[in-house]
Amino acid sequence: MGQALQRVEAKSNIGSWASKGGLPLYGLFTLLLIAPIALCAWAIELKVWSVALIFLALGLGLCALAGSLYSRLEAGNRFIEMSVDMFCIIGFDGFFKSLNPSWQKILGFSMEELMAKPRIDFIHPEDRLSTEAEVSRLQNGEITLAFENRYLCKDGSYKWFLWNAVSSPRQRVIYAVARDITERQRAEQERHKFIKTLEAANHELELRNREVERATQLKSRFLAGMSHDLRTPLNAIVGFSDLLADELPGSLNPKQKRFVNHIKQASGHLLQLIKDILDLSRIETGQLELHCEEFHIDSVLPEVLSTIRPIAMAKNIQIQQKLKSSGHVFADRVRLKQVLYNLLSNALKFTPENGTVEVSCYEYGGSICTSVRDTGIGISPENREMIFKEFRQVEDGSASVREGAGLGLAITKGLVEQQQGKIWVESEPGMGSRFTFSLPKAAAAARVFAIAVAENVNDPNLVS
Ligand SMILES: Nc1ncnc2c1ncn2[C@@H]1O[C@H](COP(=O)(O)OP(=O)(O)O)[C@@H](O)[C@H]1O
Ligand SMILES: [Mg+2]
Fold first, then answer.
1. How far is the CA of 115 from the centre of ligand 1 (A)?
2. Are 337 and 359 in contact (CB under 8 A)?
3. Residue-averaged pLDDT of the chain
4. Given its phi and psi angles, is residue 327 left (phi above 0), alpha (psi -120 to 50 degrees) or beta?
């Protein structure tokens, strides 16, 4: 009981000591002693954690970088493996160090074969010098862009390559990529060859044109000369045979009369032929003089019909007229008669006895159309174009064809076209033919003519 009392007393002593200010001092002292140590430990721990975290972050970053670099390398490698272009690394010693599979596919050699020999052995002998020069440029640090040379294939042929390359003097290698341009080169060569052939053909054509021009001029000169030299004596033959046939110098016996008529007919034909050839050459060289005026077709037709009527009567061919137009043409009266005569004489020549020939005239748009229709032998489709060319006749062996020289329609076409007209034919074999030509109506044609005259006046060459 007494001990218990002492403990209670002691406790109450301490309590009184504490209440008197003894305990705070002791706590403060302890705190001051421990705090720096604890702080130090905490700071060290923090640093360790920070460093660990930094290392972790760095490690993770490096891992990611290495991963992306690796995947990039992998992708690059895949592209190189799959590429149709040829990638390679060439050592300064002249040997291939690395090649992608394309090399094997394009040249046919295995990688080992390609790497076993100096690269120059695969190059076309004619391209070796230029290649060596390019390589030394590269080794001096320059870049190769679009260099071309030929490489040997396993089958002995050569392929054209187009190169881009750079060198790494430190590693003593060249990084290069080549493209197979053999097809492009071939196409280019073909194009060059084609252009050369075309140029040669053009040159040839030009020479021929000049020759033709010269020949045409010579022909015109010859024809002009011939016209004078042949027509003068021929006129005498025609004139005197006419006189003889008319028995003006004295009567002839029947045999003499027959002979004279032969001379008259033959010389008449010859004169006509010479006139036709001359006309044609004038049309071709543009030397035909036209004297255009306004008139109605009606006014020239009777004269032409009277010339050919005897032939029609001899074959009992009826000539009908259907003139429905009152419009005037603006044309050369004499030349229009010639056109009508050629068409009508053909119609009569190629129509059998008892047939019909019809002349009609009508207006169509701004033109006056004149048609000569017959019930004759007709023309097959393949000959319808050809007959308008000079000296061309349908070869059916009939006597009527053999009579002419094949100039009438060529002259007719030329005459119509020089007067701003057109000519065409509709026909079927055995069904007759219809030849039609159109000429501009007077007012329209006069306008065109006036413009042409004005242009010629302004042309200094023509004025002189
Ligand atoms: N009305 C026609 N009917 C059938 N054939 C024709 C007719 N007109 C022309 N031809 C054919 O066109 C050819 C050329 O005619 P053309 O140039 O006048 O020459 P030519 O009368 O001297 O034979 C004739 O040979 C003939 O074959
Ligand atoms: Mg004829």
1. 82
2. no
3. 86
4. beta
- Residue at 327: amino acid letter: G
CA 341, CA 436: separation in Å to the nearest integer? 13
* Predicted local distance difference test score (pLDDT) of residue 11: 47
> Residue 147 corresponds to which tokens in the numbers above?
């260099």
Residue 438 DSSP code = E
Ligand 1 pocket residue status of 379, Cβ below 6 Å: yes
> Exposed e or buried b for every residue in 237-247, given b needs 16+ CB within 10 A?
bbebbeebbee
User: Phi then psi for 398, rounded to 5 degrees?
Assistant: -75, 155
SS (H, E, C) 307-353: HHHHHHHHCCCEEEEEECCCCCEEEEHHHHHHHHHHHHHHHHHCCCC
Beta bridge partners of 423: 437
- Distance CA(367)–CA(327), nearest Å, equals 9
Q: Map residue 364 onto helix, strand or coil.
A: strand
CA dist 191 and 180 (Å) reads 19
pLDDT at 178: 96
Q: Which ligand is nearest to the CA of 429?
A: 1
Instruction: Point out the residues of the chain with pLDDT beneath 70.
Output: 1-26, 397-402, 444-464
Tens digits of per-residue pLDDT, 122-170?
999 999 999 999 999 999 999 999 999 999 999 999 999 999 999 999 9
Which tokens go with 43? 């700071």
Task: With CA atoms as reference, report the closest residue to 400 among 315, 319, 274.
Answer: 315
339 lines ligand 1 (CB under 6 A): no
The ligand that comes nearest to the alpha carbon of residue 345 is 2
Residue from 340, 401, 409 to probe ligand 1 pocket by mutation (most atoms less than 8 Å from CB): 409
242 three-state secondary structure: helix
Question: Which token pair is 378?
Answer: 């007709």
Would you say the CB of residue 393 lies under 6 angstroms from ligand 1? yes
Contacts of 150 (CB under 8 A, 6+ apart): 123, 124, 126, 127, 158, 159, 160, 161
Write down the pLDDT at residue 9: 47
Q: Give the gyration radius of the chain's Cα atoms.
A: 56
Quote the tokens at residue 196. Answer: 């050369």
The answer to whether 93 and 108 have CB atoms below 8 angstroms apart is no
Mutate to test the pocket of ligand 1, among 338, 346, 425, 434 (most ligand atoms within 8 A of CB): 346
pLDDT value at position 461?
41
CB atoms inside a 10 Å sphere around CB 88: 22
Q: Do 230 and 274 form a contact (C-beta atoms < 8 A)?
A: yes
